[in-house]
Write a structure and sequence with these properties.
By secondary structure, this protein is of the alpha+beta class. It folds into 4 domains: about 5-220 and about 300-380, ATPase, nucleotide binding domain (Nucleotidyltransferase, domain 5, 2-Layer Sandwich); about 220-295, Actin, Chain A, domain 4 (Alpha-Beta Complex); about 390-490, Substrate Binding Domain Of DNAk, Chain A, domain 1 (Sandwich), CATH 2.60.34.10; about 510-605, Up-down Bundle (Substrate Binding Domain Of Dnak, Chain:A, Domain 2), CATH 1.20.1270.10. Helices cover about 35% and strands about 25% of the residues. The protein has 15 helices and 26 strands. The strands form 7 sheets. Strands 1, 2, 3, 4, 11 and 12 form a 6-stranded mixed β-sheet that branches. Strands 15-14-13-18 form a 4-stranded mixed β-sheet, with helices on both faces. A 4-stranded antiparallel β-sheet has the order 20-19-22-23. Strand 25 and strand 26 form a beta hairpin. Helix 5 packs across helix 10, helix 6 (about 220-240) packs across helix 7 and helix 13 packs antiparallel against helix 14. The structure holds adenosine monophosphate. Adenosine monophosphate (AMP) binds near residues 193, 194, 222 and 332.
């Protein structure tokens, strides 16, 4: 039996693509007009909603009813995007904390809009492959948080696609170049698209990609280059023809498109001529432009991408010479000057053999193929390499997020106190695979205040969240008072590959010893608690039972105290069972006494 086919989807800010694995080679699926990309644009027309190329034509004609760049709004609230709104002509509303686009009478959430783009891609894949497509891998930027990823999954679901995995775009680009086949290395993925710039530094180790750092500029891309060239044209049209095209929306759009075409041609040739038809019988505007000229115009914008690159390197604690591979993504990396500057910064020739517009979708198809079992070598992606947890009573490590969990990830655990009247709990965050806290790596610690209460009564919820960059946020909350305290750490800081390896190796080597040490600690803790409560019960209820019952209980208590000082957890557990048996008359008497006093109800004769 073969598994249903899984496609790979690059759901982009400006353009989206779908790819699949064709006999071992990833391929992007073309549409009717042989164009591989579906513009990520959705427009409401009198005949209903339209998507992609036809919708793009409505951008100038009907801007208020045409949504583009929906990706910028995924998983966000209206408050999150206040800064963005100046860039967009849409009418936005909010419902239950989720943004909605108003298109005519109806409103649509970002996942609903994205789902229309996904449906178009799904349809394209079904037409090309002649089979129904229900499963996909979708890529997102490495910096996407949990709710942005969730919104992307929701979009898939609305489109009738089961999203088997959300993977990071830089990881996908690396997969497209087969970099996972190397055993290790650091990779810089430089992604300059139409409207956004992202730099990601990844670490590859045994087929596992970890995001070390991300940076970028959410409003920098090819559109800015086009705008500079368009402004030059507009200025010269005004000078030469006395015409201000701002009053002619259709012509403004034509200027923008010609500016982009001119830019694209100059990536291949050294000189070209732009031509534009002018309104009002003013004839034609022509302008010769050289690559040198466009390079000196756009140099400043290209330089603006380099500062985030340096920042990301610094965050990853790496120097450019420590980067083994550089991957170029996004149409704007076809510009020779961009390539040159990236090469100069990292001191190596970047990968650009694949189409930079398609490389993310191709990588998504590679990941899809791995998931469907097409590629035999097992591969884990974007995972936390070591377990993360906290120290609990007796110096034991309690894992909250296990090693090799796909990130971003989150987990919650409930903890309590072991001592009566404790006024604070220490949250000591640990990393590693060993059973005892002292054998693991200490990442951070903080203290949460709690009101003094009997042991075991406070309920402290500890939440671990690792974001896609591997940054860990730990929050401890007293469920009774609502008081909370949190801290943020980067678990991979200051840890070399060999140290990670050593930590994992040690966990195997010492596994048996560790488990028995942990068992002993836990048995001692439980024994201690049992001794304390039994002594208290004797004080409270000694008068309720026969004196030989008291004697037997005391003997069992002493035996347990001796066992507790020993080193055999099984002996401790056995003495605990003895004490439980010996103290039964006391337990029953106390229970009956409290029932009589409290409820004057039925007596119980046996406690099980
Ligand atoms: P993307 O968002 O990755 O599809 O990138 C689209 C951007 O790449 C647009 O701004 C295009 O104008 C730009 N682009 C595409 N091809 C070229 C090229 N040959 N030279 C320069 N820019 C290009």
């Amino acid at each position: 039996m073969t598994m249903a086919r899984i496609v790979g989807i690059d759901l982009g800010t400006t353009n989206s693509l779908v790819a699949y694995m064709d006999k071992g080679t990833p391929r992007v699926i073309a549409g009717r007009n042989e164009r591989n990309m579906v513009p990520s644009v959705v427009a409401m027309t009198d005949n209903g909603l339209i998507v992609g190329d036809p919708a793009k034509e409505h951008l100038t004609r009907n801007p208020a009813r045409t949504v583009y760049s929906v990706k910028r709004f995924m998983g966000k609230s209206l408050e999150d995007v206040q800064g963005e709104l100046t860039y967009f002509p849409y009418t936005l509303t909010e419902q239950g904390g989720v943004i909605r686009f108003k298109l005519g009478e109806k409103t649509y959430s970002p996942p609903q809009i994205s789902a229309m783009i996904l449906k178009e891609l799904k349809h394209r894949a079904e037409t090309h492959l002649g089979e129904s497509i229900t499963k996909a891998v979708i890529t997102v930027p490495a910096y996407f948080n949990d709710s942005q990823r969730q919104a992307t999954k929701d979009a898939g679901m609305i489109a009738g696609l089961e999203v088997l995995r959300i993977i990071n775009e830089p990881t996908a680009a690396s997969l497209a170049y087969g970099l996972q086949q190397k055993t290790q290395g650091t990779i810089a993925v430089y992604d300059l698209g139409g409207g956004t710039f992202d730099i990601s530094i990844l670490k590859l180790k045994n087929g596992i990609f970890e995001v070390l750092a991300t940076n970028g500029d959410t409003h920098l891309g090819g559109d800015d280059f086009d705008r500079l060239i368009a402004d030059l044209f507009l200025e010269e049209i005004r000078e030469r023809h006395g015409l201000d095209l701002h009053a002619y929306p259709d012509h403004m759009q034509a200027v923008r498109l010609e500016a982009e075409r001119t830019k694209i041609r100059l990536s291949d040739v050294l000189k070209t001529t732009a031509t534009l038809d002018l309104p009002d019988g003013k004839g034609r505007f022509t302008r010769e432009l050289t690559r040198d000229q466009i390079e000196s115009m756009t140099m400043g914008l290209i330089e603006r991408t380099l500062a985030p690159c340096r920042k990301a390197l610094k965050d990853a604690e790496l120097t450019p010479d420590r980067i083994d591979e550089v991957v170029l993504v996004g149409g704007s990396t076809r510009m020779p000057l961009v390539r040159q500057r990236v090469q100069e910064l990292f001191g190596k020739i970047p990968h650009c053999e694949l189409n930079p517009d398609e490389v993310v979708a191709l990588g998504a198809a590679v990941q899809a193929d791995i998931l469907s079992g097409g590629t035999t070598d097992m591969l884990l992606l974007d995972v936390t390499p070591l377990s993360l947890g906290i120290e609990t009573m007796g110096g034991v490590m309690s894992s909250v997020i296990r090693r090799n969990t796909t990130i971003p990830a989150g987990a919650k655990e409930m903890f309590t106190t072991y001592v009566d009247g404790q006024t604070g709990v220490d949250i000591h965050i640990l990393q590693g695979e060993r059973e005892l806290a002292k054998d693991n790596r200490s990442l951070a610690r903080f203290r949460l205040k709690v009101p003094p209460l009997p042991a075991g009564v406070p309920r402290i919820e500890v939440t671990f969240l690792i974001d896609a960059n591997g940054i860990l946020n730990v929050l401890a909350k007293d469920m009774r008072t609502g008081q909370s305290q949190s801290i943020e750490v980067k678990p991979s800081y200051g840890l070399s590959d060999s140290e990670v390896e050593q930590m994992i190796e040690d966990s195997f080597k010492f596994a048996a010893d560790d488990v028995s040490a942990r068992k002993l600690i836990e048995a001692r803790l439980d024994a201690g608690a049992m001794i304390t409560t039994t002594e208290k019960s004797l004080l409270d209820g000694g008068h309720l039972i026969a004196s030989d019952n008291i004697a037997t209980t005391r003997t069992a208590l002493a035996a347990l105290a001796t066992a507790k000082d020993g080193t055999d957890p099984r002996a401790i557990r056995a003495r605990m069972a003895d004490l439980e048996q010996a103290a039964k008359p006391l337990t029953v008497a106390l229970l009956n006494d409290s029932l009589t006093k409290g409820l004057q109800g039925k007596k119980v004769s046996e406690v099980t």
